[in-house]
Task: inverse folding
């Protein structure tokens, strides 16, 4: 598939189905061409979201079980499962199992998987496996929440009881992100949150007064996409901003061998830099909002979510970096009320300490 052979009318029809909610009514693939066109465009954008999530997991030093059985549930064209196998590495001999309510999608995903990994086992998940008790090393879930009926939700809930690790990526919309958050709360007793959560407690998004907020992030498209004539035409025709890749995600791990210490409580930078003993790990949600001389940030931390301010004169390097933010925006910082007064990038840069006598600008 390339831009010259892409069927633009197929993409128009698929987009209409996604926007109308038709996708929740059952399989929407009618030909292999549907899947080829989707995988080349919409699917590739989903792949970029997975790239962002998996790149972050590398920064955390997280690894899946060895010789993992990977179940891509609701696989569609199979882009998520393939990205995860690439992350694990074929040398680790993972097994990729696929499941979808569309046999056509299974045909496509199975073919693409076997072509990509000729030496690995790539197969459809059997009914016996799906209804059995065998542990699932890595359960991959991608862009399904707004398509599930009651029966499918029950099936997913049952699979989650067997999963050792869960990699779950969804759109970054308010509705879907908050729905994903409800699943996190249900699963919290059994799993440890590896990402995006900087704590293991209740999700602060669901505290009273936060109804308008949601946990979401932005992936960076590959370099050159915005100058590529094919992608530019796709963005114009689909009504998509090529610069914007909002997503929400959840990475959970139930393995008993892992430390009970929450992963974000130990920073790679801590041995050389610790701002204060009262500092906490926090993660920015959405995008920082820049004003003259300061930036506002909606952040999640162990004590909840809050809208905070950082002045440029207090941390000029971080202020500048936030203007071209890329990758996970995770920091160890100290705050006074709604003001950040000491801040260190979580992934290993020298600390920047804010002045404690600076006066915030008038609202």
Result:
């Amino acid at each position: 598939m390339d831009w010259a052979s892409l069927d633009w009318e197929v993409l128009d029809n698929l987009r209409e189905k996604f926007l109308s909610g038709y996708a929740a009514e059952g399989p929407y693939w009618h030909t292999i061409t549907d899947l080829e066109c989707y995988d080349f465009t919409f699917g590739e954008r989903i792949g970029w979201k997975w790239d962002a999530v998996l790149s972050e997991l590398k920064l955390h030093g997280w690894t899946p079980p060895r010789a993992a059985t990977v179940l891509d549930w609701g696989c569609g064209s199979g882009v998520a499962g393939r990205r995860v196998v690439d992350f694990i590495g074929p040398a680790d001999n993972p097994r990729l199992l696929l499941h979808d309510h569309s046999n056509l999608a299974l045909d496509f995903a199975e073919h693409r998987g076997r072509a990509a990994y000729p030496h690995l086992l790539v197969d459809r998940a059997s009914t016996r496996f799906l209804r059995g008790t065998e542990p699932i090393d890595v359960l991959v879930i991608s862009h399904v929440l707004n398509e599930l009926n009651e029966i499918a939700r029950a099936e997913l809930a049952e699979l989650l009881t067997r999963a050792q690790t869960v990699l779950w990526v969804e759109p970054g919309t308010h509705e879907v992100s908050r729905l994903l958050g409800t699943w996190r709360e249900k699963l919290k007793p059994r799993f440890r949150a590896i990402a995006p959560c900087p704590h293991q407690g209740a999700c602060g998004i669901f505290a009273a007064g936060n109804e308008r907020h949601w946990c979401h992030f932005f992936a960076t498209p590959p370099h050159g996409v915005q100058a590529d004539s094919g992608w530019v035409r796709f963005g114009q025709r689909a009504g998509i901003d090529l610069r914007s890749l909002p997503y929400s995600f959840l990475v959970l791990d139930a393995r008993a061998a892992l430390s009970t210490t929450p992963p974000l409580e130990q920073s790679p930078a801590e041995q050389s830099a610790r701002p204060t003993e009262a500092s906490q790990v926090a993660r920015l949600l959405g995008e920082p909002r820049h004003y003259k001389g300061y930036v506002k940030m909606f952040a999640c931390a162990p004590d909840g979510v809050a809208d905070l301010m950082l002045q440029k004169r207090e941390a000029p390097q971080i202020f500048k970096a936030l203007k071209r933010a890329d990758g996970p925006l995770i920091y160890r910082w100290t705050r006074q009320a709604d003001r950040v007064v000491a801040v260190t990038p979580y992934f290993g840069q020298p600390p920047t300490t804010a002045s404690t006598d600076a006066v915030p600008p008038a609202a």
Remarks:
- The two ends are 53 Å apart (CA to CA).
- The longest strand covers residues 163-171.
- The chain has ten helices and 15 strands.
- Residues 8-254 form a domain with the Rossmann fold fold (CATH 3.40.50.150).
